[in-house]
Amino acid sequence: MNASTRLPLAVVAWIITRNNPFGLQGHALLLSLPPVLLVWSIIAFTASVTAYTLQNVTGNRITNAASTWTIIALFVVVFISAALGIYTFAVIWRWQSKNL
Fold first, then answer.
1. pLDDT (tens digit, 9 = 90+) per residue, 48-88?
2. How far is CA 35 from CA 30, 42, 47, 56, 89, in A?
3. What's the mean pLDDT in 85-95?
4. What stretches pass through the bilayer (predicted)?
5. Helix or strand or coil: residue 53?
6. Helix and strand tally (H, E) in the chain?
7. Does the pTM exceed 0.90?
8. What is the DSSP string of 14-30?
9. What integer best gives the mean pLDDT of the chain?
10. How far is CA 64 from its chain centroid?
11. Helix, strand or coil for residue 52?
């Protein structure tokens, strides 16, 4: 095969993926697993830290309650920032798909 008849790498990858037993949908599913698992691990970590800090809210010491509510407020700010970032990317994605 000379240089003029070679297929681009993207076409070769598409042909290999299409002929795979899982097909394009299976390949897309495997490629989407790492980001999905990352999001779920962040959610689980946030829930566990929040549950750990809420243990001291019912105590009599005012310093424990203050530090607990400070940590919870920090997590709320991080959650709102992450939600706004995801919303921004969703708007950008929709806007770019309309231009295609």
1. 877 887 776 666 666 667 777 888 888 888 888 888 888 88
2. 10, 11, 19, 33, 14
3. 81
4. 36-54, 66-93
5. helix
6. 3, 0
7. no
8. HHHHHTSTTHHHHHHHH
9. 76
10. 32
11. helix
């920090």: which residue's tokens? 74
Q: Return the structure tokens found at 35.
A: 């980001």
Place of tokens 């607990």: 68
Share of the chain above pLDDT 90, in %: 0
From residue 74, alpha-carbon distances to 5, 67, 94 in Å are 58, 11, 30
Indicate the DSSP class of residue 40: H
User: Exposed (0-12), middle (13-18) or buried (19+): which is 49, by Cβ within 10 Å?
Assistant: middle
Nearest-10 Cα torsion for 29, 31, 33, 38:
-150
